[in-house]
Design a protein that fits this description.
Oligomer: heterodimer
Distance between the termini of chain B: 43 Å
CATH class of the largest domain in chain A: Alpha Beta
CATH topology of the largest domain in chain A: Nitrile Hydratase, Chain A
Low-confidence stretches of chain B: 121-133
Shape of chain A: globular
Largest sheet of chain A: 2 strands, parallel
CATH architecture of the largest domain in chain A: Alpha-Beta Complex
Helix content of chain A: 40-55%
Number of helices of chain B: 7
Largest interface: A-B, 77 and 88 residues
Largest sheet of chain B: 6 strands, mixed
Radius of gyration of chain B: 21 Å
Shape of chain B: globular
Mean pLDDT of chain B: 88
Number of domains of chain B: 2
Number of domains of chain A: 2
Strand content of chain A: 5-15%
Strand content of chain B: 15-25%
Mean pLDDT of chain A: 88
Distance between the termini of chain A: 41 Å
Order of helices and strands of chain A: HHHHHEEHHHHEEHH
CATH superfamily of the largest domain in chain A: Nitrile hydratase alpha /Thiocyanate hydrolase gamma
């Protein structure tokens, strides 16, 4: 792990009194903001380590674990659901149990609801209160736009406008849009419509068509 | 264990239905400090030291209130650098301040510890006493079997409770009418957990569907009048419509 302290010339408790001119410039330019937050975070970590709540290795392993979770896990679930109707039923009935079948650890997700887009209904997910997101399946860091005030304000009022104008996703007039405001204990994963022209494709070939955004519901799965 | 009542600088999450700002879709790299603070937070939950995300959400809303009111004399955040005085903290920064707040509240460390550590003097007590003192173990009031206030198909209205502190009901739904479409199970009331209440109630959670036109009235775009919003609501926020 890199030593953040080594590059920190601005301990946070006295940043406001430290002038940039006060030190010699024997290092490449650093971003003050980032150094400040690195230090403030490092102090929290160091204190908790010293008091025995976890070790530095625990933190490193947790960062690595979280980095290893990518939308690929969700894509595997969707591709399996596309080719196996029984699995799709189980996935929509109890998302966490179906994830266990695929050796996907949904850890902190209390309840996973998988919703299917069809020719009659299109789901799109938002969290208007914070940034609830199926992190254990799509990744621990939701896209910036998902966390943005603009997306959270607008998609519940004008979902068709947001999908069409911001994401280029046109939903037919006779298809109902369901905005899932993920504000409480359930996390939502969308099964996008299976693209036309993929009839007979096997699971492995379908996986690359399933994008992160299609599982949030702001886009369709990629066309073949 | 001490309950944290709603603070005067707490700000519930607002919703601006007339927001027309564009959605920036740049894919930004995540800073290492943001990865680190989220990992630290998750580790503390996994190891049972923190109950859930709810207290952090509540503390983050207090951070919002402090930065919006610019009441930096508050005892929550101290010694802010100049570059933070004229802007709101970003997502990961807000998480650092919120986690720090909650860990201070529970006694995982003190302000002195933070300052000493920052100066690299590791002079705190390593006796382990802290661990037993901070454990948050609320008394859970269980739901009686079969006591569900609402069933699938019931029409309900969202009550404006005027509740202070952290809430999980979006303000845009207050006084709106919708239909129960699913029973989601029962969960500890996050509004109690967020404030480290000594007694926490397990509550039924309902998925309620609202028609966009019913929610937004004249603000609803013509082509979305029949579209839906589905939101999970805890029982105490609902009242039945006959």
């Amino acid at each position: 792990m890199e030593d953040i302290q080594a590059q920190n010339r601005y301990p946070f408790y006295k940043v406001s009194e430290t002038s940039v001119e006060d030190h010699d410039h024997d290092h490449p330019p650093i971003n003050d903001d980032e150094a400040y937050w690195n230090q403030r975070t490092r102090v929290i970590q160091k204190l908790l380590e010293e008091k025995g709540f976890f070790t530095a290795a625990d933190v490193r392993r947790e960062i690595e674990r979280e980095d290893s979770v990518t939308p690929m896990l969700g894509a595997r679930l969707v591709a399996r659901a596309w080719v196996d109707p029984d699995f799709k039923l189980r996935l929509c009935e109890d998302g966490k149990a179906a994830c266990r079948e695929m050796d996907i650890d949904t850890v902190e997700i209390k309840r996973l609801e998988v919703v299917e887009n069809t020719e009659f209904v299109h789901h799109v997910v938002v969290c208007t209160l914070c940034s609830c997101y199926p992190r254990a399946i799509l990744g621990y860091h939701p896209p910036s736009w998902y966390k943005s005030t603009a997306y959270r304000n607008r998609v519940v009022v004008d979902p068709r406008g947001v999908l069409e104008n911001d994401f280029g996703t046109v939903i037919e007039k006779d298809v109902e849009i369901r905005v899932m405001d993920s504000n409480a204990d359930t996390r939502y994963l969308v099964i996008p419509l299976r693209p036309k022209g993929t009839e007979g494709w096997d699971e492995e070939t379908l996986i690359p068509l399933v994008t992160r955004d299609s599982m949030i519901g702001v886009s369709f799965a990629n066309a073949p | 264990m001490c309950e944290i009542p709603p603070k005067k600088n707490h700000r519930q999450i607002p919703h601006n239905p007339t927001d027309s700002s564009s959605i920036d879709q740049s894919e930004l790299d995540i800073n290492i400090f943001e990865k680190r603070i989220i990992s630290i937070h998750n580790l503390m939950i996994q190891k049972g030291y923190l109950p859930s995300l709810d207290p952090i959400r509540r503390a983050a809303e207090e951070v919002d209130g402090i930065f919006e009111s610019k009441l930096f004399s508050s005892d929550i955040i101290f010694d802010l650098p100049d570059f933070l005085l004229d802007r709101l903290p970003k997502y990961g920064e807000r998480r650092v301040l919120a986690l720090e707040t909650v860990l201070l509240e529970l006694g995982f460390f003190s302000r002195e510890d933070l300052k000493n550590e920052d100066e690299n003097y590791l002079s705190f007590d390593k006796s382990g006493k802290v661990m037993s003192r901070i454990a948050y173990t609320p008394y859970v009031e269980e739901l009686n079997q079969g006591e569900l206030g609402y069933q699938v198909g019931d029409w309900v209205e969202v009550v404006s409770l005027g509740k202070k502190g952290h809430i999980r009901t979006p303000v845009y739904l207050l006084r709106k009418k919708g239909k129960v479409v699913s029973l989601q199970g029962s969960f500890l009331n996050p509004e109690d957990v967020a404030h480290f209440k000594k007694k926490v109630t397990r509550l039924p959670l309902y998925l309620v569907e609202f028609v966009l036109e019913d929610v937004w009235g004249k603000l609803c775009p013509d082509n979305s009048k029949n579209d839906k919003i589905r939101v999970e609501l805890y029982e105490h926020w609902l009242t039945k419509l006959s």
